Amino acid sequence: MLSEEERREIGEDLEHTPTREAATIDALKVVQRHRGWVSDEAMEDIAGELGISTAELERVATYYNLIFRQPVGKHVIFVCDSISCYLTGQESVMEYLMRKLDIKLGETTTDGQFTLLPTVCLGHCEQAPVMMLDWEIIGNLNEERIDQALADAMAKEGP
Amino acid sequence: MTVEPVLTRNIAVRPGTTWIADYEVNGGYQGLRKAIGMAQEDVIKLVSDSQLRGRGGAGFPTGKKWESMIPLDRSGRPRYIVCNFDEMEPGTFKDRFLVDGDPHQLIEGMLIAGYACRAQKGYVFLRLEYRRIEKILRQAICEAIGKGYVGKNVLGSGWDFELHIHTSAGRYMAGEETGLLDALEGLPPNPRSKPPYPGTSGAWGRPTVVNNVETYCCVPHIIERGAEWFVGLGKAKDAGSKIYGVSGKVKSPGCWELPMGSTLGEILDLAGGMQDGYEFRAALPGGASTKFLDSTRLDYPLDFSSLKEIDAYLGTGTAIVLDDKTCPVAVSRNLAMFYARESCGWCTPCREGLPWQEKILNDVENGRGEPGDIDLLLSNAKMLGPNTYCALATGACFPLESAVELFREDFEQHIKQKACPYAER
Questions:
Q1: Looking at the domain B328-417, which fold is it?
Q2: Do A120 and B326 touch (CB under 8 A)?
Q3: What stretches of B50-160 show up as alpha helix (H) in DSSP?
C-alpha cells in the first residue's frame, strides 16, 4: 500500500500533468525515493493510484535506467562509461571500484552498502572521469577521490 | 580575443548563480517586456530574421518551428512550450553551464516563446542527474512568479503562462524531440512518425514547440537588440554567438562563449592546449554524433552551414578530442556501445544493427577481426542510418564512418596483427 506521504507527493505531481498517465515517471520516482526501489507490489499500487494497467506501468518502469525494479544497496554508484570519461581513464576508475568493493557491475556489496552500475554520459565532461554517488556528481576521479567519496557516503545516514 | 559576452553576460561577471535582482539590473526581462509590447507574429518574424538555428545539435531554424504555431486553433485547447534540457549527447555540458550560472535567461527565453506562440504552459524537460540544476531552476521559477513574469496575467498583458519542470529518469532517447514528448506524456520514449511535426501535433496532440536550452537563451537578446545585430555576431556563415566546449586530454577542459563560426584551434587555445605528452589527433566537434575532424581542420569555421559544406556537423558544439595515445578503434567501440545500449528498439535497423556494429568493433579491437570487417562496418552503416524514424542510428554512423576514413590504417593494423597496436602505449 502507498503511504500517505507517497500519495500526497504523487498528488502534487498530478496537479500539473494534463493526464494521470503523465505522472507515471514522477510516481515511480516518489516510491523509489521512499523505499529505495520499486517492488512488484508497489507497481500494482502505483498503477491503481494512476488508473492505468500494471503492464503499462511496467513498460515505463523497465525502460528508464534510473528506476530500480530490483533492490539496490544503500548507496548507488553510477560510473560514466561514455566517450569523454573513456578518454580520461574511466576503465581504471571502474576496475578500481570493482576491486575495492569486490563486486562486478550490476552487483551489490554483501553488506548491502553499495550497488555499482554503469551509466551513459553524465554531462560533466569537463570533470571527467565522473561518477554519480547518491545522486551527487563527483568528478576528476582518482583513487584518493574515490576512497574519500565512499568514506563520506558510509558516514552519512542515507542518500 | 575580446568578444562581448551575450549568453554569458552574467556568467562572465559573477561567480555562482545570478538570481533575479542581479539579472534585472543587468537588463534582464527587458526582452520579455519588449516582446509583450509587440504583436505575436512580429516576435516570431524577428526570431526568423535572426537566423537563429537550434543549438541542440540539428540546427533547425528556430523561427520555422515557431511559425508552425501561427495557425490558431480556436478551440482554446492548450498549446505548449517545451525546453529540451535532457543534455545526454556524450561530451556535452554547455546547457548545464548556462543554467547553472544564469537560470533566468532560460526562463525569459521560454516566456518569450510562450507569448509569441500563444502557449499557456511550458515544461522544462530536465535529466534527473542534474539535481543541482533542478534546485536552481525551481528557485528561479519561484522568483519569476513572485515578480509577475510567470503566472496569471504576465506583466499585465492578460496572457497567462505556467512553467513546470519535468525531471526524467534516464535514457538518451528521451532527448530526441518526439521521444521527449512521449517521455513527457509518461511513456517510454520512441520516435514519432513525422509529419505531423510537433508544431501541429506535439505534447498530448497539441501544438508544441521544443527547443534546446541554449536556443531559448539566445531569444531575449534577439528581441532586445534586433535580428541584424544577432546575425552580425557570427564570424562565418551562421548567426549568433555559441557556447563551445572541449573535453578529453586537454589541459583545462571547459566551455566558453565565442562567435558562431569560431574554430577548433581557438577552442583548444582556450583549453590551454593538449596535456603534456599528448598530441592532438582529431576531434568530434560537437558531441558523439558528429564526424571526426583531423588537424587539417583546426582553422575551419565551426558552424552548421560551413561544416555541412565539408559533409560534417556542428552538433552541440562541445568538442571531444582524440589524442595520439588512444586507440581510434577502441574509441569507435566505446561510441558504438553507447548507441547500441541507448537504442529504444523501435526501428529494426537500429535495434539489430547497432549491437552488430559494436560486436564487430569489439572483435577488431581485441584481435579477433577478420579481413572484410571494415567493409562490413561501412556497408552496415549505409543501411542503418536512413531507415529509421529518428537520427540516433544516423548519429551512430557519423563518428564510425569518419573514423574509418581518417584512421583506416589503424583498423587494418588491428586485423593484420590480430592485436591492438596501442596496447603498450
A1: de novo design (two linked rop proteins) (1.20.1440)
A2: no
A3: 62-67, 94-101, 103-116, 131-146
